[in-house]
Design goal:
The protein is of the alpha/beta class. It has one domain: Aldolase class I (TIM Barrel). The protein is built from 9 helices and 14 strands. Strands 1-2-5-6-9-10-11-12 form an 8-stranded parallel barrel, surrounded by 8 helices. The mean pLDDT is 96.
Length: 283
């Protein structure tokens, strides 16, 4: 297999995450209504995929299957976005509960390809868990996005494909997550080092820059023919001295940059085709 050429840019929005506190950022979309409003606005701004973490009634991270299913159904009803659920949850969630995320019937799910230092904690992803999640996604016809925090994670991805065959849909899409404290820094040089190590099975890739690495990684990814993830999960500062007011600001800026580089934002239909997404939307 080989990279699928694309004249456009898949823009993913990750609006919430599991790290930021609602008390510190009241604009963080933590309720279902806020999430749906964010999805609508970000789709209008140029996003074609939404990466969802959920919060409970106290605005704390949760992977409760009912809460997740409500989010999937609501976003799918109100938008045409590809709906992707995080199977990472928070670093404290047990592995069995993370597998149960797929019970919510998303279009796509994240699959982190290895354990990684995560600030002062450890994000645990042992190979047996990764294999179980990979096979379960195949069985449920859910398309995984392979999250890469370290260069060794690319070798783990190859092991998964060799052991279990291609994911559902036949595409292998990776997202480089750069800038997490304790893992690879968010710089163009690191991104290009990772690209030089891409396995042949990979058909498309995107990149995420955490914090101050957001803009350098965003620009480098689009210029290099990749795709981009933005959102308040990863970055809450829009410019020096100004906090992000809404996730759609980050999406609109990414879409503007993609247009300037003559790789405009993909439509949701184009994103589904690129990733091999099954259409679960009601007719």
């Amino acid at each position: 297999m080989a990279l699928r050429p694309s004249t456009g840019t898949l823009i993913t929005v990750a609006p919430t995450g599991a790290e930021h506190l609602k008390a510190d950022l009241p604009q963080l979309p933590t309720t279902l209504d806020e999430l749906v409003d964010t999805a609508r606005r970000c789709e209008a701004a140029g996003a074609s995929l939404i990466h969802i973490h959920r919060r409970d009634a106290e605005h704390l991270p949760t992977i409760d299957p009912v809460v997740l299913r409500d989010a999937v159904d609501a976003v799918r009803t109100e938008t045409d976005l590809v709906v992707q659920l995080s199977t990472g949850g928070s670093v404290h969630d047990p592995l069995a509960a993370r597998l149960a995320v797929l019970d919510a019937d998303p279009d796509s799910c994240s699959l982190t390809c290895g354990t990684v230092n995560f600030g002062d904690e450890v994000f645990l992803n042992p190979m047996p868990f990764m294999s179980d999640l990979y096979v379960l996604a195949q069985e449920r016809e859910v398309v995984p996005e392979f999250e890469i925090f370290e260069v060794g994670h690319l070798a783990a991805l190859e092991r998964l494909v060799d052991a279990h065959g291609l994911p559902f849909g036949g595409a292998v899409h990776v997202d480089f997550v750069l800038g997490v404290p304790g893992a690879l820094p968010a710089t163009p040089a690191v991104l290009h080092t990772l690209l030089a190590s891409l396995p042949e099975c990979v058909t498309s890739w995107s990149a995420t820059g955490i914090g101050r690495g957001h803009l350098p990684v965003l620009a480098s990814a689009i210029a290099a023919g990749g795709h981009a993830r933005v959102g308040m999960e990863d970055n809450v500062v829009f410019s020096r001295g100004r906090v992000v007011g809404h996730n759609d600001e980050l999406v609109a800026r990414a879409a503007e940059l993609a247009t300037l580089l003559q790789r405009p934002a993909l439509t949701t239909a184009e994103a589904r085709d690129l990733l091999g997404i099954k259409d679960r939307r009601a007719r």
